[in-house]
Amino acid sequence: MNLLSGLLEMELLRIWMKLSPDFRERLGLLDSTLILDVPLGVISRIEKMGGATSRGENSYGLDITCKDMRNLRFALKQEGHSRRDMFETLMRYAFPLTHSLPIFAFANEEKFNVDGWMVYNPVEEYRRQGLPNHHWRITFINKFYELCDTYPPLLVVPYRASDEDLRRVAAFRSRNRIPVLSWIHPENKTVIMRCSQPLVGMSGKRNKDDEKYLDVIRETNRQISKLTIYDARPSVNAVANKATGGGYESEDAYPNAELFFLDIHNIHVMRESLKKVKDIVYPNVEESHWLSSLESTHWLEHIKLVLTGAIQVADRVSSGKSSVLVHCSDGWDRTAQLTSLAMLMLDSYYRSIEGFEILVQKEWISFGHKFASRIGHGDKNHADADRSPIFLQFIDCVWQMSKQFPTAFEFNERFLMTILDHLYSCRFGTFLYNCESVREKQNVTERTVSLWSLINSNKDNFKNPFYTKEINRVLYPVASMRHLELWVNYYIRWNPRIKQQQPNPVEQRYMELLALRDEYIKRLEELQLANSAKLTEPSSSPASPSQMVPHVQTHF
Amino acid sequence: MFSLKPPRPTFRSYLLPPAQTDDQINFEPKIKKLEPVLLPGEIVVNEVSFVRKCIATDTSQYDLWGKLICSNFRISFITDDPMPLQKFHFRNLLLGEHDVPLTCIEQIVTVNDHKRKQKVLGPNQKLKFNPTELIIYCKDFRIVRFRFDESGPESAKKVCLAIAHYSQPTDLQLLFAFEYVGKKYHNTANGINGLPSGGGGGGSSSAVGGGQGPQTPLFETYSDWDREIKRTGASGWRVCSINEGYMISTCLPEYFVVPSSLADQDLKNFSHSFVGRRMPLWCWSHANGSALVRMALIKDTLQQRKIDQRICNAVTKSHPQRSDVYKSDLDKTLPNIQDIQAAFVKLKQLCINEPFEETEDKWLSSLENTRWLEYIRTFLKHSAELVYVLESRRLSVVLQEEEGRDLSCVIASLVQVMADPYFRTITGFQSLIQKEWVMAGYQFLDRCNHLKRSEKESPLFLLFLDATWQLLEQYPAAFEFSETYLAVLYDSTRISLFGTFLFNSPHQRVKQSTEFAISKNIQLGDEKGLKFPSAWDWSLQFTAKDRTLFHNPMYIGKSTPCVQSHSVKSFKRTKKSYSSTLRGMPVPFKNGIISDQQLLPRRNSLILKIRPKPPQPAKNQNSGMEEYFQEWFSKPVDLHGILLPHLSATHIKLWKLCYFRWVPEAQINLGGFITAFHKLSLLADEVDMLSRTLRQPRASPGGPCSAERDQSRMYFQASGPHPHSTSGTPEFLSSSFPFSPVGNLCKRSILGTPLSKFLSGPKIWLSTETLANED
């Protein structure tokens, strides 16, 4: 563990530490006096360590566990009882909800020249997809969250299904999360639908409306093939869910559907897996048996299963084999992972910075991924069983894809890391609350700033220089352990020994070359000016630099 | 001139490679079909028609029909069936698309599925059944499978036996290179071809690029060594010729470098005491005067102390500051060659294991269990520590190893790659391999196991290439070459045509080829043995265009085009770049010999301590090294100075291009690092072009597009006649590029991504927008 000494300061948003001058010198730091900067939102747990009688250096103080894979330990002097004040203040501001205080985002008065809340407009997004069309309509049935309180107000459903049909279907789907359209293939018109599990229960209940509804979905494109249902869960879990009233679509009830289980584990398994990852990377990296330790966390195995599931969804749809319905239990964790990743593979638009923001806004935020419960914003109950790194896992999958396709994404690694940092920071309203109905009640868009305001007003920082815009190319990552890697730059970024080269040397070299090119072009232009100055001399050469420069430029 | 005309491509190419000028000249409709184009000296031993080459295990839909040929050089599959699914192939001029050189064959398995029999074929073995199937396991991890359902059973059997026989020769002189080079000499005698040129290890070795670049020094001559001494600025060292005609040792080169203070007579006297008479050989000197030296063990126990003392004193005298000698006993600090071989065998098993899915669950721990990455790390770590000793402690380093021709090759080369930017250029890297491997007597014949007598096999050369790749991966702008170059270099060790990787020592080449020449009635004249082609003559294997793929677009060379401008930095290696890293580092020792013992704990040392222990306790030196590394890593990297590897377990990676390129399941279509490489190349090419234009403001009317274009060092060019050089990612790119696994056996479809995906690649919808882009 590294020891530093200095002055600890705290603001409403963050704690930070100023190094004492002698340490600054020892570390060779000249300007950056700020050595530690922790948003309070990232704090998961605060504990006192040692007591008034503790002996030994650094045995008395505070222990802080963070949500972003690090722990902090502040050793304090025992004299003066400063710790109690500090502890209480920290507790109050790190966990405002527990203390009936507002979350920091509501006090944040940052101004940006772009309004991130304007990024996602569902009507526009559906219009981009070519909706509504002959087979699909936009319904406002959920305008006041009456059909389903965790769905957005605006939904896309089959043209042939009436609002009355939808209500009857909702009765048969867990938490009324009926099958609605997420994405439509622009050419073969197959679709990706999302929903929650059917309420089959132990008795094997059936619902004629639900059965008919799925058949209507199947028939929206001219294909006569079966509708493919991907149940994200392991089949055992799906069966077990019958005991609590859930279940899956049986062959008898849905003869025109084909059901596959994708074997993705639940939120509890993922949480434990990430905990193990932390154990092997923090505070020290498990060097001697790194790969087998990594394997024993199963983290990459879970990543592989999620990606594999998404690849299958994307393949079904892009090959035009059939439309796809995706669900898990409630349809807000694994389902969101699968639909959004499949859409990222299928639709190059989502691989741009704005497109990705829309994807997150649409598939995650508007469709009710329970960010508040999964992250526990401002809540001190760190052991809450509802917490789980589902969104982190999704971002990890995106990172894996960006590693395999270095030119396919407009955004860089920093973009993904910034999203994750503000997933916890509570500086922006973007990830607050569990669903749109609550956000609307809290007036989030008016009272807080969107994360996309920060990002979109500094877009250049988040751009991947290798990005090659390509239209309609489907990306199939290889979901094999041979290619999946631990995201070292994220998970091990707090370890000073594993310092990665920042920025990435390949990117850095590219930027240098770009600068060199601009320099040369400038000089060529100067030369050209100098040449044209010599107009007195009748030039017969057709290839003056003036003609070459545009030739070069046309390419970029 | 030994002008081997690149043979015409054996088969019609259905692929998209850029048009070659020589192709255009040779273009004529072929009348005779399914006939191989043979190299000089190549003879077809046996052949069988109506053979099916299997592409996938679960369907015969993609199989190819053709003729299977066994020659004394390769097995060749000639087909008229195009490979419609394969979009690109990096073409080797010596080998057809489906060819496997005999020296690349690892194991031959014949199967009869009616009788449910299977047999691994050794040389001179009988086969009691008619094979319905032949599976070739290659040393480069390829698996090639042929079916004989429609072919004559007897001729199928004969071909299998011929392959088994010719791929496992009993004698070195039966390797194809001899036949090839013999034919060349005969042709010379008949006045058909010119005389071969260049050194014995190989002919002239032009640079990889299009033009006439610098030649690779082969270190066969006095002057090459002399130039290397001057290049490094070493003083106190001289070239020694006592081994001319291999009079002293048959495993040392004829010329090598020794401390000036040792007279020839001394060396002759000492030589008897060294294993293999391998006395100390100078490898390289740091700008501060510290030298890197390698030697074998002193077997004469009585003389041991005395000789060791004399040697160390001589090395000390050759140091400008008379600094001490640091000895590193490699046998005690590194895994041995058997361990390394065992690790490689496990790695190979893991990579080719069928089916693909089965190895997935335990992939990471299985990879760890091979220990391959651990060994790579160990070698990198040890080399980095020696760089510290040479640079920061300013001590000369003596590598000691039993014979001094295995582990020493790896460590000596890695130290130089890290410490001297010259060895990170293509010519420099090749000269390093000549100096520390070929001339230093690395036993390529035994270690590559060209004669299939497995007990001496060990992949040390690959280990070195892999370790170099790790450095390239960590410092991508520090190397002139690309990872493709490293992979192709590795492949060249298994083409038995070049003299470079064929022998156990320079002497063996002379001896064996002289014998061969006599038996074939070839007049050698004054030459010392036959002149085999050199692997460094890349034009034998690849067209100028394909060779541009060896160039790393990120490399910031000294030759980086720079305008006469103050703002564009020119990169020059100066002494400053060395001394800058030495700042504030005291030289801790004066005189006295220091061994590994003080840096790294080890058992018994042969090192004699003349003086009592130096003042600092061992712990301090260790922390000195820690401090050195810490300081180095805290600063921005000087790509033309010292390079030290990151050694954390998270930094040492598997070299996927090398080990996965033939595995269809592991291929990322339209992805992989190559797609970024492509973008970089376009930009680097444009920068080159601009810089040329700037230097010649009054360019010819064609501008940079015609003659200038040929100068491009990039494979992917910013603009040009080729349809794929538009700014989008070319469709043929994949993580295996420029290799294509499609012709090889694909075992099973991977989860989620059906086989057809690997074969046909992702579907691209033709919308109006894409069509517009193609214009």
Automatic annotation (TrEMBL), chain A:
The gene is MTM1. Pfam families: GRAM (PF02893), Myotub-related (PF06602). CDD domains: PTP-MTM1. Residues 297-359 form the Tyrosine specific protein phosphatases domain. It catalyses: 1,2-dihexadecanoyl-sn-glycero-3-phospho-(1D-myo-inositol-3,5-bisphosphate) + H2O = 1,2-dihexadecanoyl-sn-glycero-3-phospho-(1D-myo-inositol-5-phosphate) + phosphate; a 1,2-diacyl-sn-glycero-3-phospho-(1D-myo-inositol-3-phosphate) + H2O = a 1,2-diacyl-sn-glycero-3-phospho-(1D-myo-inositol) + phosphate; a 1,2-diacyl-sn-glycero-3-phospho-(1D-myo-inositol-3,5-bisphosphate) + H2O = a 1,2-diacyl-sn-glycero-3-phospho-(1D-myo-inositol-5-phosphate) + phosphate; 1,2-dioctanoyl-sn-glycero-3-phospho-(1D-myo-inositol-3,5-bisphosphate) + H2O = 1,2-dioctanoyl-sn-glycero-3-phospho-(1D-myo-inositol-5-phosphate) + phosphate. It is found in: Cell membrane; Cell projection, Filopodium; Cell projection, Ruffle; Cytoplasm, Myofibril, Sarcomere. This is Myotubularin. Heterodimer with MTMR12. Interacts with KMT2A/MLL1 (via SET domain). Interacts with DES in skeletal muscle but not in cardiac muscle. Interacts with SPEG. It comes from the Eukaryota. It is an enzyme of class 3 (hydrolase). It is a peripheral membrane protein. Residues 532-547 have a biased composition (Polar residues). Residues 116-491 form the Myotubularin phosphatase domain. InterPro entries: GRAM (IPR004182), Myotubularin (IPR030564), Myotubularin-like_Pase_dom (IPR010569), PH-like_dom_sf (IPR011993), Prot-tyrosine_phosphatase-like (IPR029021), Tyr_Pase_AS (IPR016130), Tyr_Pase_cat (IPR003595), Tyr_Pase_dom (IPR000387). Its EC number is 3.1.3.95. The keyword Transferase does not apply. Belongs to the protein-tyrosine phosphatase family. Non-receptor class myotubularin subfamily. The keyword rRNA-binding does not apply. Keywords: Cell membrane, Cell projection, Cytoplasm, Endosome, Hydrolase, Lipid metabolism, Membrane, Protein phosphatase. Lipid phosphatase which dephosphorylates phosphatidylinositol 3-monophosphate (PI3P) and phosphatidylinositol 3,5-bisphosphate (PI(3,5)P2). Has also been shown to dephosphorylate phosphotyrosine- and phosphoserine-containing peptides. Negatively regulates EGFR degradation through regulation of EGFR trafficking from the late endosome to the lysosome. Plays a role in vacuolar formation and morphology. Regulates desmin intermediate filament assembly and architecture. Plays a role in mitochondrial morphology and positioning. Required for skeletal muscle maintenance but not for myogenesis. Residues 532-556 are annotated as: Disordered.
TrEMBL record, chain B:
It comes from the Eukaryota. Residues 219-659 form the Myotubularin phosphatase domain. SUPFAM superfamilies: (Phosphotyrosine protein) phosphatases II (SSF52799), PH domain-like (SSF50729). Keywords: Phosphoprotein. One of its GO terms (biological process) is phosphatidylinositol dephosphorylation. One of its GO terms (cellular component) is cytoplasm. Belongs to the protein-tyrosine phosphatase family. Non-receptor class myotubularin subfamily. This is Myotubularin-related protein 10. It comes from Erinaceus europaeus (Western European hedgehog).
